[in-house]
TrEMBL record:
Lineage: Eukaryota, Metazoa, Chordata, Craniata, Vertebrata
SH3 domain mapped to chain residues: 705-763
Stated name of the protein: Rho GTPase-activating protein 10
Compositional bias per record (Low complexity), positions renumbered to this chain: 623-638
Biased composition (Basic and acidic residues): 606-616
Domain Rho-GAP stretches: 372-557
Keyword tags: Cell membrane, Cytoplasm, Endosome, GTPase activation, Membrane, SH3 domain
SUPFAM superfamilies: BAR/IMD domain-like, GTPase activation domain, GAP, PH domain-like, SH3-domain
Annotated localization: Cell membrane; Cytoplasm, Perinuclear region; Endosome membrane
Molecular function in Gene Ontology: GTPase activator activity
Annotated InterPro entries: AH/BAR_dom_sf, BAR_dom, GRAF_fam, PH-like_dom_sf, PH_domain, PH_GRAF, Rho_GTPase_activation_prot, RhoGAP_dom
Chain ranges of the PH domain: 258-365
GO biological process: cytoskeleton organization; negative regulation of apoptotic process; signal transduction
Record GO cellular component, one term: cytosol
Length: 763
């Protein structure tokens, strides 16, 4: 207060600091009010959504199969109504919360901002205005000439003094107001927030109370649900057994009735010449004893409304061949009251037609079997279709995804596959054949080949690179395998892939990206010989292979593969997990059991170790990928192996092993009694490993395998500076066994490090 009379620069600086802090408080409250109003709006929206959800629960009612409901089913049916009531009660509490936020938070803060902070702003305006007036008058007074009359000077002095007193009073009031607002904001800002949280806690507490009251009902409902589930589990196996029995042979488990045959047939209804004919679906029944045939028109897609029944007495039934009608599975019936006017029917399949023909005593004819081949006609078909697609429909949205009408596709294929009519079919200029019919015919032709275009034999090898490896290694592997395809397959594949690459270039308009084309043509170009769950899981990898073919078609088909590239391994397995690294304290010796090796190592001849099996590119892979024990060799000098020798001699190598204490025991690995049983052993003999027989005192040693080479069969990314990173096909120099179980030491590109033993194959 005393500083008000001095009005020093420091006083003014402190006043400005207070004003800045109050402006900051004002902005904070303004932002808080905005967020608070948004919170209220969001709470109301949430409440509305919860109420709508509750209404949906309340309005739904379960329908139960059977004659009567169990008590459990009745409780389950009523449960949704209970859930709805619970949410309704909860939302009532939320509405109370939303109202309390307005009363306890929004209005008090708005009042403080308006009444208190607004008042300070008004005081500041007066203070600034009075400051300007005071110092302007003072400067004017000081500029008065001393030659003025004494009365005038005295009058001017009085005026300045009065103005100064007024300024000091206003200054004192302003400072007092600043002091007051700084203290007031501490409780008037925080108290509304506290009230808001109190309302929030009350809401959550009410929710807790509702949940506690609901708990008893919830426990009872869980018992009802579990009882219903148990009954379901008890009957499901019987229902599935019945279903599978009918699925295996539906004809043997038909519902007993008086009809010899019944089912849906399409009936041709002829119209006047300009309008052609239409095919209407009918549910048909036939009694052989009375030869009465009934038809009831029924269309599932129009609400399932049945038409008027038509009945006639059958005279005869004959089969219609495809050379007389542009539809498959057709046969003619003639009624006794309409001689010479046959009614043409169409069954759903060839098997269905055979059943109808047998029931109607119709004459069964041998049907033509459509079989696509990679011959001159096959290449002509594909080239004509591709030319038409690129001429007429390269920009059609969903190209190859949108399918054509089956009957039209079959008709087009029959014309194209017939040498007499193939050249007459004009696909590029004719409006009779839609683009979707042409693309569907192409896909149908490829699916009708005796084996997929990329062959059953190479299917597994194509899948392997798609599952792992770098992008470059995948392309190289697919490149290599494509050139292993039969020449006709490779030629057809090149024509097709070149076309698909052209289609993908127009993806902005036809929306058929490389990925979309992979989805469409993956199952068409590749499929396993045997349908298994594993094969189904590999579908996505078929798509990846097709994507690689499309994206790199120039390299794959126009260049020869790298002759040094390792042949892909025909195994549909993922890279094995690297063995865990062991942590060791300095000076601590690693103790690990000796592995049981193939006991038929040829040790009778002194130089038997000089002819190890060098190449086990496929045969050794079982040892690389299987989970059977892998020999964990020790690189310790022979002297450290006392008491741990394998007891073997040339006469009884296959019969005995030793444990760590040196006691002999019979071998538990009789399956290893042939050299081929564990091919990895001959490739992984440890350096300076001794075999001894205490009974004879004889010793036989396998010489060191230092300076051996190995090739990577899986890619690996190093997880430690002491490990090596590598891709498939990398060649390691000077490979030796590490002290780490399951790890090797080797050199790659001048760097030495650890290699997972099950990721490589010895050369």
């Amino acid at each position: 207060f005393s500083d008000c009379y001095l009005d020093s620069p420091w006083f003014r600086e402190r006043v400005r600091a207070h004003e800045a802090e109050l402006e900051k408080t004002n902005k904070f409250i303004k932002e808080l009010l905005k967020d608070g109003k948004n919170l209220i709006a969001a709470t109301k929206n949430l409440s509305a959504a919860q109420r709508k959800f509750a209404h949906s629960l309340r309005d739904f009612k379960f329908e139960f199969i059977g004659d009567a409901e169990t008590d459990d089913e009745r409780y389950i049916d009523a449960s949704l109504h209970e859930f709805s009531n619970f949410l309704k009660n909860l939302e009532e509490q939320r509405e109370i919360l939303a109202l309390s936020v307005t009363e306890t938070l929004i209005k008090p803060l708005e009042r403080f901002r308006k009444e208190q902070l607004g008042a300070v702003k008004e005081e500041k305006k007066k203070f600034d205005k009075e400051t300007e007036k005071n110092y302007s008058l003072l400067e004017k007074h000081l500029n008065l000439s001393a030659k003025k009359k004494e009365l005038q000077l005295q009058e001017a002095d009085n005026q300045v003094e009065q103005n100064r007193k007024h300024f000091y009073e206003l200054s004192l009031e302003y400072v007092c107001k600043l002091q007051e607002i700084q203290e007031r904001k501490k409780f008037e800002c925080v108290e509304p927030v506290l009230s808001f949280f109190q309302g929030l806690f009350t809401f959550y507490h009410q929710g807790y109370e509702l949940a506690k009251d609901f708990n008893h009902y919830k426990m009872a409902l869980q018992i009802n649900i579990q009882n219903t589930r148990n009954r379901f589990e008890g009957t499901r196996s019987e229902v599935e057994e019945l279903m599978n029995k009918i699925r295996r042979n539906p004809q043997e488990h038909k519902r007993a009735n008086n009809f010899t045959m019944e089912g849906y047939l399409y009936v041709q209804e002829k119209r006047p010449a300009p309008f052609g004919s239409s095919w209407v679906k009918h549910y048909c029944t036939y009694r052989k004893e009375t030869k009465k045939f009934t038809m009831i028109p029924f269309e599932h897609r129009s609400g399932g409304k049945a038409g008027d029944e038509e009945l006639f007495v059958l005279t005869y039934c004959t089969k219609r061949n495809t050379d007389t009608i542009d539809r498959r599975f057709c046969f003619d019936l003639e009624a006794s009251d309409r001689p010479g006017v046959p009614v043409t029917m169409q069954a759903f399949s060839e098997e269905d037609r055979k059943l109808w023909m047998e029931a109607l005593d119709g004459k069964e004819a041998v049907s033509d079997v459509f079989c696509a081949q990679l011959d001159k006609i096959g290449f002509t078909v594909i080239k004509k279709c591709i030319s038409a697609v690129e001429t007429r429909g390269i920009n059609d949205q969903g190209l190859y995804r949108v399918v054509g009408v089956s009957s039209k596709v079959q008709r087009l294929l029959s014309l194209l596959m017939d040498a007499k009519t193939c050249n007459e079919v004009d696909l590029e200029n004719s409006v009779d054949w839609e683009v979707k019919t042409i693309t569907s015919a192409m896909k149908q032709y490829l699916r009708s080949l005796p084996e997929p275009l990329m062959t059953y034999e190479l299917h597994g090898e194509f899948i392997v690179p798609a599952k792992s490896g770098s992008p470059e290694s995948r392309v190289n592997a697919v490149h290599f395998l494509v050139h292993k395809l039969p020449e006709k397959n490779k030629e057809m594949l090149e024509i097709l892939v070149k076309h698909l690459a052209n289609v993908s270039k127009h993806a902005k308009r036809n929306l058929m990206t490389v990925a979309n084309l992979g989805v469409v043509f993956g199952p068409t170009l590749m499929r396993p010989q045997e349908e298994t769950v594993a094969a189904i899981m590999d579908l996505k990898f078929q798509n990846i292979v097709v994507e690689i073919l499309i994206e790199h078609h120039e390299k794959i088909f126009k260049t020869l593969p790298d002759a040094t590239f390792p042949e892909p391994i025909s195994m549909s397995v993922s890279p094995p997990n690297a063995p865990p690294r062991q942590s060791r304290r300095q000076g601590q010796r690693i103790k690990r059991p000796l592995a049981v090796y193939n006991l038929c190592l040829e040790l009778d001849d002194a130089d038997s170790h000089n002819s190890p099996r060098e190449d086990t590119s496929t045969g050794s892979m079982d040892s690389l990928s299987s989970q059977s024990p892998t020999p964990a060799f020790s690189s310790s000098p022979p002297g450290l192996l006392d008491g741990n020798h394998l007891i073997m001699d040339s006469g009884d190598l296959a019969g005995w092993t030793t444990n760590l204490s040196g006691q002999s025991r019979p071998s538990m690995v009789s399956w290893m009694n042939t050299p081929s049983a564990n091919p990895a052993v001959t490739n992984t003999v440890p350096s300076a490993f001794f075999f001894s027989n205490p009974a004879t005192g004889s010793h036989k040693a396998v010489e060191s395998i230092a300076q051996r080479k190995a090739r990577a069969v899986y890619p690996c990314e190093a997880e430690h500076s002491s490990e090596l990173s590598f891709q498939i096909g990398a060649i390691f120099e000077d490979v030796q066994f590490s002290r780490e179980p399951g790890w090797l030491e080797g050199t790659l590109n001048g760097k030495r490090g650890l290699i997972p033993q099950n990721y490589v194959q010895f050369l």
